[in-house]
Specification:
- The complex is a heterodimer of chains A (171) and B (833).
- Chain A is α+β, with helices and mostly antiparallel strands and 171 residues long.
- Chain A has helices at residues 2-19, 55-60, 84-91, 154-159, and strands at 34-40, 51-54, 64-69, 76-83, 97-102, 107-111, 121-126, 129-130, 140-142, 164-170.
- Chain A is built from 4 helices and 10 strands; from the N terminus they run αββαββαβββββαβ.
- In chain A, β5 (97-102) and β6 form a beta hairpin.
- Chain B is of the alpha/beta class.
- Helix content of chain B is 62%, strand content 13%.
- Chain B contains 28 helices and 18 strands.
- A 5-stranded antiparallel beta sheet of chain B has the order 2-1-5-4-3. Chain B has a 5-stranded mixed beta sheet with strand order 7-9-10-12-11. A 5-stranded parallel beta sheet of chain B has the order 15-14-16-17-18, sandwiched between helices.
- In chain B, α14 (467-484) packs antiparallel against α17 (545-555), α23 packs across α24 and α26 (793-807) packs antiparallel against α28.
- Chain B is rod-shaped and about 210 Å long.
- The chains are: A alpha+beta (171), B alpha/beta (833).
- The A-B interface holds A 70-74, 103-104, 106, 132-136, 152-154, 157-158, 162-163 and B 42-48, 55, 59, 62, 79-80, 82-83, 85-86, 89-90, 93-96.
């Protein structure tokens, strides 16, 4: 029930946001469970020096979608999320490295230069469904592997971190 | 050799290219393999799979730790379970684990773990109270599966170790293949480098050789006495040698690049030169180039035109065709040649003059000699005292010797002037030799020498050769032998050999005389060589006899020689090619049997009074009737009005010469138009003889005329009459008309009636008295004379044949001839009417 309400609220937010472009200072402190906590050298914060994003806040950001297969799943999946480019723009970050950490404390480094149009994203929907922890959710950094052989390398695969819950931007 | 080298070079190039391509192909293939290996290493299954498997156990242990919590943190428990679940889910699905999952042990373990998860999920997903109650059950489940989770990681490690071994081996194999291919390529490159080095060596050696050749060639051209000029296809000079500078007076740098035609072709040849160059450029047709030595005219810098000899050859170079001319100034040679030609012409003219002089002199000497000898001949018939007769004999001997000498000189002159003509006619060899033996026998007898002849081998009487020359040669050789032999023997042996390529006549004259000294033997056939002085008193001679004999034999394509030892006599021999023939009627009769000649009516045409009188007296002495004419015109007129039996015609005469007179007589239809005419001349060259015959003459008598020659000619005339009736017409109408005009119609008619009657009586007489040849001959002769008056030529001819037959005793022919008379008589009278 709560889930349903959250979804409804998110949908309303999307409707609302699509009408008026979201500005950075508009991201409010999280109301629901925090899915992603962003720290480090960022220009946008909402709780102390952190930017804490719940599902609504993530979905309020400009959404990106693509379809691709992955080496960890069967068949082609469609993904929806916030592209790294949009996220970095929102954070006012143009350079440096992102340290992405998962629920189990697995951490990888993603260079900010990966944040390009048509590049990787922080996905929150797979096949239009929310991802459970059991399904590598709730957040998964995915790249459009099928669109470019450059995304089918070990480096990119290692940056494709799932069960993501923290980002830290360092120089 | 260059071909072989080129082929070797081509083969080397091909080999190097092929080997290089092969090695390159291998390297590309291997490089592709390597890059594939690298791609395999770097993509798909390249996620840190081992880490993931190890992480499985870490996450399982994390989950297990949360189960032991006091109290149990349910949220952390659920999260750690989910993380583990997610991990297992990934391992079960992810393509990177596909190969790992294919392992039976691994997949069994995986299935066990999934069963564990399936069993645990309802408990984890139950509400908090139930979960808390069932934690011990979760612990039991987890502990039972724990070995499997551990086994999963270990199994993965084994599999990856194996896979990585395989992959390492594949990479190592590819790498060693690559290394091999690289060594191959390096080897090929090494070979190519060696080959290139060889090529460079060869090329540089060739370059050096070419440089040497060029230097040598330049030296050759530079030192050549002939000028060397090279031009391009348009005639522009591109090389001009030092010798050419000297020849033409141009310096090299002045003429390089200029048109060759403007520089050295004289103006009058320039159009032809330009046309030639144009022709070569457009059609490639070459008239001078490559045609060996050519003589042309050229022009020097100072405008002098001078003769050159040149040879032009063309060569094809990178910059088109070029022409190379070697030329030399031949003005000195041409001048020398002209001088030589002039000298030769002068010499030839002098020689000709000398020959002509000799011929003329001989002729001019022979004419008065002829007179002297003729008169002496006549003088012998007069009454002489014994002394006078002896003096006359001496004079005649000297005269005849002189005549022989003059004839010899004339013969030599003719031979050397190339006017000696050789005839080839059938002749009686036996008669010829017999005549010579006969003529020399009295001389031999005086010397007490025996003279005989015989055949060696089968006699071959009739042969084809030149009887006059042969007679001259043999007469000379036999005469010499007889002359030099005292109290000895002279033998003449004739043989005809038919075993060689052609028939050959060999005549040997062997004497027992003094023989020849060795030095004389070699010179005996030279001009003006006479025997040793001891004999000069005994035998005379100009020393030309054997020289002439040699010339005649040579002219007959034969050889003449002598074998001799001093004191042992000598053997002269001749060996000449002949042709064997069988006797035929046209053959020249060399045997002249003396026959009694019937008196003839003869016209002698001769301007020289002495000669004329000699001939007249000789003929009259032989019983002939002679009419004289002083020149050709007179002779022609007399011949026209009277039918002579024979005309002797001199050739060179004032007013009209003998040849013209003969032609007019033959074409004039006169009384003597068909009479036999003999030329009487001292000039008896063969071509003249032919010319005389063409004019209508029947033969030639050579001056000085002798009674023997005259007799022979008349005998021949007599025989010829027998076989050669000249006309088939019954009467000579022109002659008959003239007779009628001369006599007048009345007298003519009377004479004709009498002729008719006489002829009838004659025919009767001949028919009845055919058994008395003398009477027949007389009657026929008389009848023939009458018939001649009327121009009854057919009748006259037949009567003359009867007369001749009767005289020669050929009585068998008489009845047939006489039987034709009545018809001829009737036809003739009818024609005369």
């Amino acid at each position: 029930m709560i889930k349903l309400l959250r979804t409804f609220a998110g949908a309303s937010a999307v409707l609302f946001l699509s009408a008026t472009p979201l500005l950075a200072e508009d991201i409010p402190a999280p109301q629901g469970d925090v899915l992603l906590t962003i720290t480090g050298n960022i220009k946008m914060t909402n709780v102390d020096d952190q930017l804490q994003l719940d599902r609504d806040a993530l979905m309020a950001l400009e959404a990106a979608t693509f379809e691709t297969s992955t080496i960890w799943t069967e068949g082609v999946q469609s993904f929806q999320g916030v592209s790294l480019a949009t996220l970095m723009e929102t954070l006012g970050v143009t350079e440096g490295t992102i340290i992405a950490t998962a629920i189990n404390d697995y951490a990888v480094e993603i260079p900010v230069s990966d944040a390009v149009e048509g590049g990787g994203m922080v996905a929150y929907l797979m096949d239009d469904a929310e991802m459970r922890v059991r399904d590598k959710g709730p957040l998964w950094v995915v790249y459009p592997y099928d669109s470019d052989p450059a995304y089918r390398t070990e480096v990119i695969y290692s940056r494709s971190i799932w069960q993501l819950d923290r980002l830290e931007v360092v120089n | 050799m260059p071909d072989a080298a080129d082929q070797r070079a081509a083969a080397g190039r091909t080999f190097a290219v092929l080997a290089g391509l092969l090695a390159l192909g291998a390297i590309l293939f291997l490089a592709f393999n390597v890059s594939r290996e690298i791609r395999l290493l770097g993509s798909a299954n390249s996620d840190n799979v081992q880490w993931s498997l190890a992480q499985t156990e870490v996450e399982f242990l994390e989950y297990r730790r949360h189960l032991n919590g006091e109290p149990v943190n349910l949220s952390a428990l659920r999260r750690s379970f989910d993380v583990f679940y997610s991990r297992m889910d990934t391992i079960s699905q992810a393509s990177v684990f596909e190969t790992t999952r294919a392992d039976v042990g691994f997949s069994d373990t995986l299935r066990d773990i999934q069963l564990f998860l399936t069993a645990s999920v309802p408990i984890i997903d139950a509400d908090d109270a139930d979960l808390r109650l069932q934690v011990p059950e979760l612990i039991a489940l987890a502990d039972s599966i724990r070995p499997s989770v551990r086994g999963l990681a270990t199994a993965g490690l084994d599999i990856f170790a194996r896979e990585s071994d395989v992959q390492r081996e594949a990479v190592a194999r590819t790498m060693s293949q690559l290394a091999f291919a690289l060594s191959l390529l390096i080897g090929t490159l090494g070979l190519a480098i060696f080959y290139l080095y060889r090529l460079i060596t060869i090329v540089s050696r060739r370059e050096a050789q070419q440089k040497q050749t060029a230097v040598r060639l330049n030296t050759v051209i530079g030192t050549s006495l002939d000028g060397v000029i090279v031009s391009d296809a348009r005639g522009r000079i591109i090389e001009f040698s030092p010798a050419a500078e000297v020849i033409f007076g141009h310096s090299r740098h002045d003429v390089i690049g200029r048109d060759i035609g403007q520089i050295m072709v004289p103006p009058h040849l320039r159009d032809a030169h330009d046309a030639g160059m144009e022709r070569m450029r457009t059609t490639g047709e070459k008239h001078v180039v490559g045609k060996g030595r050519v003589k042309l005219e050229a022009q020097r810098a100072n405008g002098d035109v001078f003769p050159i000899e040149l040879a032009i050859q063309s060569a094809t170079t990178d910059s088109g065709e070029i022409y190379i001319a070697f030329l030399r100034d031949i003005s000195a040679r041409v001048a020398a040649e002209a001088e030589l030609v002039a000298a030769r012409d002068r010499a030839l003219a002098g020689e000709k003059l000398k020959t002509e002089f000799l011929a003329t002199m001989s002729h001019e000497i022979r004419t008065p000699l002829n007179g002297i000898l003729g008169n002496m001949d006549l003088l012998q018939n007069t009454t002489l005292t014994p002394d006078q007769a002896r003096y006359l004999r001496h004079m005649e001997t000297s005269g005849r010797l002189l005549l022989t000498h003059v004839s010899d000189v004339l013969d030599i002159t003719r031979y050397d002037a190339g006017k000696l003509n050789i005839q080839r006619v059938a002749m009686n060899l036996g008669d010829l030799v017999q005549d010579i033996i006969d003529s020399q026998s009295s001389m031999a007898a005086q010397n007490g020498t025996a003279l005989d002849w015989g055949w060696d081998g089968l006699p071959q009487v009739w042969v084809e050769s030149d009887p006059d020359r042969l007679q001259h040669v043999l007469m000379n050789l036999v005469g010499n032998a007889v002359k030099f032999t005292r109290q000895g023997k002279v033998s003449l042996t004739v043989s005809v050999r038919t075993d060689g390529p052609g028939d050959r006549l060999r005549v040997e004259i062997e004497d027992t005389g003094p023989g020849l000294a060795a030095d004389l033997k070699d010179r005996v056939f030279d001009d003006f060589v006479t025997g040793n002085t001891a004999y000069d008193r005994d035998v005379g001679g100009t020393g030309l006899g054997l020289a002439i004999a040699k010339r005649f034999v040579t002219a007959l394509d034969g050889q003449i020689g002598v074998d001799s030892e001093p004191g042992q006599g000598c053997t002269f021999w001749i060996d000449i090619p002949i042709k064997r023939v069988t006797h035929h009627p046209g053959a020249v009769e060399t045997k002249r049997s003396p026959t009694k000649i019937a008196p003839l009516d003869i016209l002698v045409v001769e301007d020289n009074e002495i000669n004329r009188i000699v001939v007249r007296d000789m003929l009259q002495a032989a019983g002939h009737r002679v009419t004289e004419a002083h020149d050709g015109q007179q002779g022609m007129i007399k011949a026209h009005s009277h039918a002579y039996d024979l005309i002797l015609m001199d050739i060179s005469m004032p007013v009209m010469d003998g040849r013209t007179a003969t032609r007019l007589i033959r074409t004039g239809q006169g009384a003597s138009a068909n009479t036999r005419i003999l030329a009487l001349t001292a000039n008896v060259l063969q071509d003249e003889r032919v010319a005389f015959l063409e004019d209508g003459m029947d033969g030639v008598l050579t001056k000085p005329l002798t009674q023997a020659a005259l007799h022979a000619a008349l005998a021949k005339e007599d025989r010829a009459e027998k076989t050669a009736p000249r006309s088939t017409d019954v009467i000579d109408s022109q002659h008959n008309r003239e007779t009628r005009d001369v006599l007048g119609a009345d007298t003519y008619d009377m004479m004709r009636s009498r002729f008719d009657a006489d002829m009838g009586a004659l025919i009767a007489e001949l028919t009845d008295g055919a058994d008395d040849p003398a009477a027949v001959a007389a009657a026929a002769h008389k009848g023939a004379g009458s018939a001649a008056v009327f121009g009854a030529i057919a009748l006259r001819e037949t009567l003359k044949q009867i007369e001749t037959a009767a005289k020669s005793g050929d009585t068998a022919a008489l009845p047939g001839l006489i039987a034709t008379l009545p018809d001829l008589h009737r036809d003739t009278i009818a024609a005369l009417a």
